[in-house]
Design a protein that fits this description.
about 140 residues; alpha+beta; binds zinc ion
């Protein structure tokens, strides 16, 4: 992590729109600093190169851990996790009517929602407050 130059960290942050690539949570709405996510984990050969990096909340990053693929709960098939650098969030996920829950619309989306625990109780509580404040959900 520390090998990534600050200039590259800042570029990743800007390219990611200062929000988590997996749940779209915005930096300005949380106290914790969004961290650099290795799309392919360093433990399995992922590099510190720009094309392997994106931005994520610590909770999302920790839940992802070393996973690169996961089971789609609908089909039982192993599929790659969502790649926020190469794929569009809106192609794979949408917001529930309440704006609080993330719904996976594709095998990749469904597997990622489960694998990264994107609808954990804390996230739901926080997003509910964001919705009440008029800050959420983001629009495309
Ligand atoms: Zn997130």
């Amino acid at each position: 992590m520390s090998k990534i130059p600050n200039t590259l960290r800042e570029k990743i942050r800007q390219d990611a729109g200062n929000r988590c690539g997996y749940c779209l949570g915005r930096q300005e709405l949380v106290l914790g600093v969004l961290e650099i996510d290795h799309l392919v984990p360093t433990g399995t050969g992922g590099s510190d190169d720009e094309d392997n990096l994106w931005l994520a909340f610590r909770a999302c990053n920790n839940a992802k851990s070393s996973q690169q693929d996961a089971v789609d709960p609908l089909t039982g098939q192993f599929v790659p996790l969502f790649n926020p650098r190469k794929q569009s969030w809106w192609d794979h996920f949408c917001w529930s009517e309440s704006g609080v829950e993330i719904i996976g619309m594709t095998p990749v989306g469904r597997a990622t929602v489960i694998a990264l625990d994107l609808n954990n109780v804390v996230s739901l509580m926080v997003r509910r407050n964001w919705v009440n404040a008029g800050w959420h959900p983001p629009i495309k």
